[in-house]
Each structure stands twice: as C-alpha cells, then as structure tokens.
Design goal:
single chain, 296 residues, alpha/beta, Rossmann fold, 2 domains, ten-stranded mixed β-sheet, 29% helix, disordered C terminus
Length: 296
C-alpha cells in the first residue's frame, strides 16, 4: 500500500461549475476557472441563474413569460460571448438555470451537472486580491454540498496552479482539509503546504500532530508536502508570517457544527478569508478523509 495515493479519495467528474455573470465578480470567477482547468482534463460549466419572477412594484411579483424570454436570451448571449473569449486550450459549456434563490440554484446545478467545485467571484468593492463576500457566495458558504472556490477581486492569474496550502485550525475539519489538499496537490503534481494556525487564547484540543495520518507523514517524508506552524495573537497576525506565491490556492474546512456533507463556514475560517490573498477553496464537512473512508 502506498499511503500517499491509497487513502480514501473521492472520484472526480472533471467538471467545475463557474457561477458566471457579466460583471467583475463573474470575470474573476471565470479567470479562476481557467487557472484551475489549465493543463488538466477539466471542463468548465458556465452557469448563470435567471429568476422567473418579474418585480411589478407595490410588493407584487408576477411571472411574465415575455420578459423572462428576453432575459434568458440576453443571458445566453453573454454566456456565448464568455465561451468565445476563452483560451483555445480550455473546454467549456454554458447553462442557464432558473431560480429565485441563486445560491440554491447553483448548488442544485452543481449536483445535476456533476461538478466537483463551485467557483464564485468575490464581491466588487473590496481590496485588490482580497475577499469581500457577496450575498450569493455567503449563502453558498453555509449550504453548499460541494467545495466552493472563491476568486479574490481582480484575479487574473492564467494558470496552471503552482501549489496548494491546506490551513488547519485546532479542531474539526482538519482531516477534510488535509485530505483534499493532498489529493489536489497529488493530482496536479504541485507542492502541498500543511499550515497549522495557533491563535493565542484558543483551546487547541487534540493537536494535529496526534491525528497526523500516514498519508501526510508519507508525503512529507517524500518531499511532496511540508508542514508549517504559524502563531499569533490573532488570525491576521498569524497569517502575516506566511508568504504566498503566484498560482497558489488555499484550502479551508467547515466548522464543527456543520452537518455531514454540508459546508458551513466557521468564525475562524471567516477571519482567515479576509486575510488570505490567494483563491480559497472551502470544503464541506466529511467531504474527504484520510482515514475511515469517504462520505457516501
């Protein structure tokens, strides 16, 4: 048995969902999709959500087939233009879905299209290369059933991905983060960093060293992964000790209270997002594990 490759890995579909709208947010998400797909056998699924409801004022909403047809046609035209703008080495299709709740519609589309990841852009108005989470992204970070990748504002790196950093805190979510980090780094043949955050005054519980799996130990011993511990009085001060390289992505886990198979962004992960300058993937609880089998 090779622990580096034989831990319980999820089967991948080779499809990534890009939540696309013709705004800076959508362009950032598309750019991240391109970077993740580059030099990989991956198809991007560009998905736009249109609402079947037309606001009429006075608190009344009705369905207008004519209006909805116009909106759908315009959306299709924008998606077609987005596809035509893609580099020749990127495979993609577009899809229009209806829904009054964009986050729910995107989550459903990810299931129906069998996508491994939902990619969304950060809301405009934040600092360059930082996250300011919009309504749709925020909803996904508390409900999604597949990992959600957040593209920082102004993201333009063309790919391919150059490294994966799995950020682990003191509690639940470590195995998910380490497993998907190791899996993605192995598939892409890029370095993996396992970064342990130690924040002053926070109870660490069982240390990560006590739960360190054979797979991680094997990856470190073979030079495929490195381990870093960074400490500080706050998440911000701890993260200031780290350097990031172009093309790197970070991985975070869900909170302890997350339901099995669901994503739920915890308070620490939320603070981390505000200070990490690279695209970040947040993983649902139980999505992948280094021991005990994968989620059914």
């Amino acid at each position: 048995m090779n622990p580096l490759t034989d831990f319980p890995r999820r089967k991948t579909s080779g499809s990534l969902l890009v939540a696309y709208i013709d705004t800076s947010d959508g362009h950032d998400a598309l750019n991240l999709g391109i970077a993740l797909a580059r030099e990989r056998q991956v198809t991007l699924k560009l998905v736009s959500v249109v609402s079947p409801i037309t606001p009429q004022g006075f608190g009344v909403q009705t369905q207008d087939p004519g209006y909805n047809a116009i909106v759908r046609k315009q959306t299709q035209q924008r998606l077609t233009a987005a596809l035509e703008s893609l580099p020749s080495d990127i495979s993609a299709t577009w899809h229009v879905v209806e829904g009054t709740d964009p986050a729910l519609a995107l989550n459903d589309a990810a299931q129906e299209l069998e996508c491994d990841l939902i990619i969304v852009g950060a809301r405009s108005g934040g600092l360059l290369n930082r996250f300011r989470i919009g309504t749709v992204a925020s909803s996904l970070l508390y409900t999604a059933q597949v990992p959600v990748a957040l593209a920082p504002q102004g993201y333009s790196y063309p790919g391919p991905i150059t490294g994966v950093s799995a950020l682990v805190g003191p509690r639940q979510g470590r195995s998910d983060v380490a497993a998907i980090g190791l899996d993605r780094a192995f598939r892409r043949e890029v370095p993996l960093r396992i970064i342990t955050l130690k924040i002053s005054g926070e109870d660490s519980g069982v240390t990560f060293e006590q739960q360190l799996s054979e797979a991680i130990q094997d990856a470190v011993s073979k030079g495929r992964a490195s381990r870093i511990t960074t400490s500080g009085a706050s998440v911000q001060s701890a993260l200031q000790n780290l350097s990031w390289k172009e093309g790197e992505v970070a991985v975070l886990g869900s909170a302890r209270i997350a339901s099995e198979g669901r994503l739920f962004l915890g308070a620490t992960a939320n603070r981390i997002l505000k200070h990490v300058p690279v695209p970040t993937i947040v993983v649902p609880s139980g999505y992948m594990t280094l021991k005990g089998g994968e989620r059914s």
